[in-house]
Structure formats: C-alpha cells, structure tokens
Design brief:
Number of strands: 5
Radius of gyration: 27 Å
Number of helices: 5
Helix content: 40-55%
Mean pLDDT: 83
Structural class: alpha+beta
Order of helices and strands: HHHEEHEEEH
C-alpha cells in the first residue's frame, strides 16, 4: 500500500530537484552575464548590450545596467563631440569653418529637424547658418527670436501654435511644433542665437539644454574670434 505513495513522493522529489537545479543554473548564468557586463562597462566597451530577461530582481538589475550603459555611451558621445567642436573653434578664425560642426553636433545629439545660428552684424543685418530639413523654413523667425532672446535669455516653446502672442508665425512655409533658442554671449557681448526646431512636440530635458548651452558657448567664442580677427 505504501509503494504508490513512496513512488509518487520520489517522482515529486526528482521533479523538484531538476527544477531547483535549472533555476540555480539560470540564476548563475544571469549573474555571470551581469558580471561580464560590469567588466565591459568598466573597460569602456559600451557597444555591447547587457543581455537580461525576466521580470524578477535579476532581470530588473540587468535592465538597470543596460540603461546605465546607454546613458554613459550617450554622455561620452556628447563629450567627444564637444571636444571636437572646441578643437575646431580654437583652430579656425573663420566662421564658415567653425560653425558647421556646431550645427551638425546639435542635430546629432537632439532629434531636431532643423538648426540655425543667426549672428547680428554691426549694421543690424543677420549673418545666418543652417542645417537640417527645416533649416531654410526657420529663417522667418530669426529676427523675432533674436530680439526675444536678447531680452529674456533662453526661450523654450513646446507648442509654437500657442505662442501667437509672442511669435508671428505667419511667415513660416512649414509648421513647427516645438523650438528652443539659446543666446550666444561672450564677455558680456550678445552676438546672436543658436536655435532648433522640431516637427513634433518635444520635451526639453535639463541635460539636453545644458549640452545645447555649451554648444552655444562655443558658437559665441567662434563669433568673437572672427570679429577680433577681422
């Protein structure tokens, strides 16, 4: 009479043992992947994704490592870009050489569809540089934004259509949804603006604005160097 019960218990024990072993092996493999990922991140190998699966604590830890990897990669790319821009600005006294890397850098780091730099000359006319699909369309707002930014500093508009009291957008040939305009200042002198436009609504994060402000600082240095050289 006991034989069937004993057989059932032995069968359950074997099944449980197999499940436990497989669970331990899975946990061990996940931990090994995370350990390998930490070594890669520590050595600067940020192109290797952190492989993780599951919704348990180890899976969540793996996802956190992956987010950290992406964040570090993005920050290092920004730092590398700023270094190249700074080197280019320092090496050139001519705006047509110094400005393009700043424009392309702004587009590379953000999701903007257009970027412009508008510099105010001594005779109040504008000297402009543009890049991106919306670069030419944006020209209609250059003068308005220069006047606005000179008075208020950095201007962030998430919904351009609702800013009719601030901007006259009737001259635009293509709709803009969001924009940001940053002053170019150096040694208390106002040279113009760096501004970007987006076709879709864009949320401006603090880190993004900090990066763009740094780019604007490089553009201001380039403008100051060019004027001194002239």
């Amino acid at each position: 009479m006991a034989a069937p019960a004993v057989s059932l218990l032995l069968g359950l024990f074997v099944v449980m043992f197999v499940l436990v072993v497989r669970g331990i092996q899975s946990i061990s493999a996940s931990l090994e992947n995370l350990l390998s990922a930490t070594h890669h991140i520590r050595e600067g190998q940020l192109d290797r994704p952190v492989l993780s699966s599951g919704s348990d604590e180890i899976g969540q830890l793996g996802q956190a490592f992956e987010q950290m990897r992406l964040h570090l990669k993005h920050r290092l790319a920004e730092q590398d870009l700023l270094l190249r821009v700074s080197s280019n600005v320092s090496a050139s006294m001519e705006l047509f050489r110094a400005i393009p890397p700043i424009l392309s850098g702004a587009l590379d780091v953000t999701s903007a569809q257009g970027v412009r730099i508008a510099l105010r000359r001594a005779d109040k006319t504008l000297q402009t540089y543009a890049a991106g699909d919306l670069g030419a369309t944006m020209a209609a707002l250059d003068q308005q934004l220069i006047d606005l930014v000179e008075k208020q500093g950095t201007v962030v508009i998430s919904q351009v259509l609702r800013a009719s009291a601030t901007l006259d957008i009737s001259g635009l040939t293509e709709a803009l949804h969001s924009l940001v305009a940053i002053p170019l200042r150096s040694e208390n002198n106002f040279y113009g603006i760096l501004w970007l436009a987006f076709r879709e609504e864009h949320t401006f994060e603090e880190e993004e604005l900090t990066f763009l402000t740094t780019l604007a600082g490089q553009a201001a240095i380039a403008a100051n160097n060019a004027r001194l050289f002239a």
